[in-house]
Amino acid sequence: MRYLNHQIILKRRTDGLPCAGDFSLGEQWIDGCGAGEVLVRNYYLSVDPAQKGWMGSAVNYASAVVGQPMRALAVGEVLVSQAEGFSVGDFVVGWLGWQEYACVTTDKIQTKVDPTVAPLRYALGALGLNGLTAYIALNDILSPDPEDTVLVSTAAGGVGSIVGQLAKRRGCHIVGLTSSDAKARLCCCEYGYDRVVNYTASDWLQQLKAACPNGVDRYFDMVGGWITDEVIGLMNHSGVHAQVGTAAVEGWSPVPLAPRRERAVLVKELTHKGFIAFNHEHRFDHARRHLLDMIDCGALNYREDIRDGLASAPAALVSLYEGTNTGKTLVRLVD
Fold first, then answer.
1. Is residue 210 over pLDDT 80?
2. Residue 287: inside a domain, yes or no?
3. pLDDT, the chain, mean
4. What is the DSSP pairing of strand 109-113 with strand 149-152?
């Protein structure tokens, strides 16, 4: 059987914020798959802040390929299998790209997914990259003590919304940063945050100092840039700073100028450590079990921003940097 595959192609690299013009529509016919491959029909596509970095020319841990479907995680159903261990009808999550169908070798598959345990789309969010990042970076890097003040940037996003709830279960004082008053209220009402500051307010830094009267012990940082330049001054002695993203930095070529932080790191004996979830796969199963237990007992609140249709993917990515999304952003191809 032949399949007409529509795709979103990365048209060019960009070292600034992504825009719709960075992509083009493409199509191809797929006649099946070769030895060691599976053909997957994508149901949901993931839209993640990290994709901006994959599109850029600066050195990164991963890179999207110009002229190919945009690099992305997706979840879908195996239609054809020529690979040992995979059967027709299996559901899988992996590096399947922004396209309707993906013919891939099994090294592109992260894991099988049981749709009877949780909705398929959760494999890209609460039980996928977002949840895994939140759980592992919080527990393994920040490892806060009870009553520590934990500051989380992009607190209303797919990762930040989970971090707040996990840190609250550890007995921490949770403070968030987000881009609107509505998102700030959401974080306090649903995600366990004690205080949330809208960083677009003119007096946001004064508000943040008031929300952290005892300083910041642990910083879950998904933005970097000008926001982190100010937060470093609030860090307590022996504080820990987890660098999980750099969404507030528009581009890395040329290297942006910023205040130097070395003196604060030295005097306060701060720990600053990067985190890339894919380097911690040995922790994935444990983290998923914990998150699934929370979901099963109703202890994890989680929101999704779902767009319909393949063509909506570029605009969905742009929305992440406009701050108009709430929760995990997904593109739905199949109900």
1. yes
2. no
3. 95
4. unpaired
Residue of 49, 51, 86 whose CA lies nearest to 70: 51
Distances from the Cα of 43 to the Cα of 260, 309, 320, angstroms: 45, 10, 21
Residue 81: the pLDDT is: 97
The tokens for 126 are 């609460």
Domain around 50: 3-122+304-332
Cis geometry, peptide bond prior to residue 254 (ω within 30 degrees of 0): yes
CATH number at residue 261: 3.40.50.720
CA distances for 309 relative to 43, 100, 194, 256, 332, angstroms: 10, 10, 37, 36, 6
**Burial class of residue 293 in the structure, from the number of CB atoms within 10 Å of its CB (0-12 exposed, 13-18 middle, 19+ buried):** exposed
Total domain count for the chain?
Answer: 2
Sign of CA dihedral 34, 40, 41, 42: negative
Q: What is the mean pLDDT of the segment spanning 300-312?
A: 96
Asked if 118 and 139 sit in the same domain, the reply is no
Q: Taking a C-beta distance cutoff of 8 angstroms, is the pair 154, 178 a contact?
A: yes
Which residues 6+ apart lie within 8 Å of 238 measured at CB?
A: 268, 269, 270, 271
| φ, ψ for residue 232, nearest 5 deg | -55, -35
Helix (H) or strand (E) holding 321: helix 313-322
